[in-house]
User: What shape does this take?
Amino acid sequence: TLRRWREAILAYHRYRVSNGYTEGVHTKIKLLKRISYGFRNRKVYVRKMLLAFVPLAWLTAVPHLLT
Assistant: This one.
């Protein structure tokens, strides 16, 4: 209801900031995990996230990043 979300709504109009970016990142991480049918270990999981979020230009400039 509007009463429940009153503070969040007013904060958005006051500061023009939302958590949309954070929600998008969280959704992308969940999608990566689902597409990969889980991960064997944490190292592989971190590498997949780096590939998903690091701009391609950075990957070509620093080839040792993923090794």
